[in-house]
DNA sequence: CATCTTATATCTTATACAAGACTTGTCGAA
DNA sequence: TTCGACAAGTCTTGTATAAGATATAAGATG
């Protein structure tokens, strides 16, 4: 270790060195210093610049790769993870068909409005009273039949103009990243079962009283910052929600 | 690398050295050479014994820790992961109450029989025609009300005498490990929604036509060997199935 | 009770070679 | 000259090794 302020050498260091390095590198992605798809400097260059050894940088990069923030390719280099419609489907979408193949629904119809956030939405998205949100309502289909209805709520601050987008993209998170520089890093889903009321029956073309899977989803960006809240009701005639238990 | 047969040095090695080391260490757990809860030799002893460096052993142990096969404690040593009722609840049980706390259901009633496996069960458990299984039917409750009904099917070969166990344990996997030396390493769940029929309504004390969450679970031991198939229907009045999206 | 010792995992650095991917240079044929 | 094939070179990540410093836990000692 060479030209580094003494803070980390004198103080017992609250965090291991590799974790500090990781935090600094994550920050570069978070601030947009490094953009999605970009090639970042190699291990030796980073080690040199940060004043640590190559092995320490390697450990930081390894964890970031495990968290899907980076993609490393032998012989090529290290790149900032870039969302694509395909990758989003695999990462965050847990519905599979009878054979076990992931299903990819297409949008049947959608509409978006800017409104004042309701209390439940404010709580989920950690917004102040009176904050505005974009509320998207859409029905998606699969195999020629309606599959689910979603109500998607995002802060208007983060996504200005989203409501006026002529065609709401089918996969939103790559759009969020490309257009609004908001990277979705993870989230959580809560599931329960409901029976279709008149409204849901109309949306999904099923009989009232049919069983539906209800999925409540909250997605986060860096620092667990909530960026989307979504409530879906899904007709699970030919689909299963699949989870790997680790 | 020192005293090692030339196989790995001359041949380009089909697998990286650390992966070979890992495979050998996993095998020791799988065969019962190392038992759950046992303290295993430290990194230097293993490196010495296997003829590799300490760093290579470390990488293997690190992956095994990530897969929850081992538990490492600084200053203490490395131990083989041991299932307990509590740990099982956190690892494989995804139901939470309204506050987000994991719920812990108690068994209301259960019965077990030995039968010939049905085709669907044979397929899930990869059993030969005519193979016997133990089929457990039970209702579990939570907060004074019935929570779910489960049909659990396991190969009779693996768990002889399970059907005659006077009281089927509430958490099965730690029992599997302690009594039958079968370690459950992972699994998968597939969810959909159903409406309660007469039978389910009776089990769960809900009205017929109520929405229920149906969970089909297959659990695996080492080498993805299926050891349990389970079909549950859950009354989700005060419970949510929660999933972390990574 | 406080302190020392020991054993362990964890962290950091350093070096070397292997393997993959791209670039450049060389050579020969058309 | 132009094109293509092939070899060589170079940059990158991946793997393997070695050695030292630090943090944590448990037991022994005073």
Present the secondary structure layout.
The structure is a homodimer of 246-residue chains.
Chain A: H1 7-10, H2 17-30, E1 39-40, H3 43-50, H4 54-66, E2 70-73, E3 77-80, H5 85-92, E4 95-97, E5 106-116, H6 119-125, E6 132-142, E7 145-155, H7 172-180, E8 186-195, H8 198-204, E9 211-220, E10 226-234, E11 239-245
Antiparallel strand pairs in A: 1-3, 2-3, 4-11, 5-6, 6-7, 7-10, 8-9, 9-10
Chain A binds a DNA duplex (30 and 30 nucleotides) through helix 4.
Q: Largest sheet of chain A at a glance? A: 6 strands, antiparallel
Q: Taking strands numbered 1, 2, ... along the chain, how are they ordered across the largest sheet of chain A?
A: 5-6-7-10-9-8
Oligomeric state: homodimer
Q: What portion of residues of chain A belong to β-strands?
A: 25-35%
Order of helices and strands of chain A: HHEHHEEHEEHEEHEHEEE
Gyration radius of chain A, rounded: 21 Å
In the CATH hierarchy, what is the superfamily of the largest domain in chain A? Chorismate lyase-like
**CATH third-level topology of the largest domain in chain A:** Chorismate lyase
Question: Separation of termini of chain A?
Answer: 38 Å
Overall description:
- The structure is a homodimer of 246-residue chains.
- In chain A, the strands form three sheets. Chain A has a six-stranded antiparallel β-sheet with strand order 5-6-7-10-9-8. A three-stranded antiparallel β-sheet of chain A has the order 1-3-2.
- Chain A has two domains: 17-80, Arc Repressor Mutant, subunit A (Orthogonal Bundle); 85-241, Chorismate lyase-like (Chorismate lyase), CATH 3.40.1410.10.
- In chain A, helix 2 (17-30) packs across helix 4 (54-66) and helix 3 (43-50) packs across helix 4.
- Chain A has helices at residues 7-10, 17-30, 43-50, 54-66, 85-92, 119-125, 172-180, 198-204, and strands spanning 39-40, 70-73, 77-80, 95-97, 106-116, 132-142, 145-155, 186-195, 211-220, 226-234, 239-245.
- Chain A contains eight helices and eleven strands.
- Chain A starts with 6 loop residues before the first helix and ends with a strand.
- In chain A, strand 2 and strand 3 form a beta hairpin.
- Residues 1-13 of chain A have low confidence and may be disordered.
- With 246 residues, chain A is of the alpha+beta class.
- The longest helix of chain A is centred in the first third of the chain and has 14 residues, at 17-30.
- Helix content of chain A is 28%, strand content 33%.
- The interface between A and B is medium-sized, with 33 and 33 residues.
- Chain A binds a DNA duplex (30 and 30 nucleotides) through helix 4.
